[in-house]
Amino acid sequence: MPTTLPLPYDYARRVVPESADMPPAPASLRVRRAASSDLDDLVALELRSFSSDRLSRAQYRRHLDSDSALVLVASANHHLFLGSAVLFFRKRSAVARLYSLATRPEARGQGVGAALLEAAAVAARRRGSRALRLEVRTDNAAAIGLYERHGFRRIGRYARYYGDGTDAWRYEKTLG
Ligand SMILES: CC(C)(COP(=O)(O)OP(=O)(O)OC[C@H]1O[C@@H](n2cnc3c(N)ncnc32)[C@H](O)[C@@H]1OP(=O)(O)O)[C@@H](O)C(=O)NCCC(=O)NCCS
């Protein structure tokens, strides 16, 4: 049974636009823990969202079953897959890591990323994490803006962090 996370915002009022390859606008947006039935959607979104350092199907399958990972899915009307987030936890560490965040291209700019980000923070806090960290490509303006508007502050830089040689900014959010 998937877990529905309590979310701090009223996402039900967000509406995703209709487009040729999307069903009619869903009325509600919710974030839940991913299940193995989400594997196809998770892998398809990974392929469309990232050009390097992708998670494979086997990695997603492992993360779905792992205590040290949490995969979240944003969906509308209880079935329409809109986006995902991947969190990692380490024993004896109060810092959780947001490894991945992605929204289906057709649904971007409608608050799906924000909903996943808030749900990730809620989930990490519930597991006792005091901070959430992430890395983001220095050329990813949309993601950087989203993170900064959601309370993440820049804490460092990793040179040539990604497979294609791009640097990463490191960000951290303190979980109150
Ligand atoms: C980053 C990403 C997850 C955001 O998802 P989303 O569902 O569009 O997020 P939201 O709708 O909640 O917010 C997007 C915000 O970025 C803004 N934005 C969109 N494109 C932008 C751009 N090129 N430059 C700056 N801001 C941009 C939107 O206006 C919106 O701002 P708002 O919060 O003031 O309304 C999505 O763009 C994505 O999946 N990108 C590909 C994967 C990726 O890069 N993931 C992050 C690194 S792990």
Description:
With 176 residues, the chain is α+β, with helices and mostly antiparallel strands. The chain contains four helices and seven strands; from the N terminus they run βααβββαβαββ. Strands 1-2-3-4-5-7-6 form a seven-stranded mixed beta sheet, with helices on both faces. β3 (80-88) and β4 (95-103) form a beta hairpin. The longest helix is centred in the last third of the chain and has 15 residues, at 112-126. Coenzyme A binds next to β4, α3 and α4. Coenzyme A (COA) is lined by residues 49, 100-103, 108-114, 136, 140-143, 145-146, 149.
Defining key terms:
single chain; 176 residues; alpha+beta; Aminopeptidase; seven-stranded mixed beta sheet; 7 strands; disordered N terminus; binds coenzyme A; transferase; Acyl_CoA_acyltransferase; Ribosomal-protein-alanine N-acetyltransferase; acyltransferase; GNAT_dom
Question: Which SSEs are present, and which pair or pack?
Answer:
Elements (H helix, E strand, L loop, with lengths): L28 E5 L5 H11 L7 H8 L4 E8 L3 E9 L6 E9 L8 H15 L4 E7 L3 H9 L3 E6 L9 E7 L2
Parallel strand pairs: 4-5
Antiparallel strand pairs: 1-2, 2-3, 3-4, 5-7, 6-7
Coenzyme A (COA) binds next to strand 4, helix 3 and helix 4.
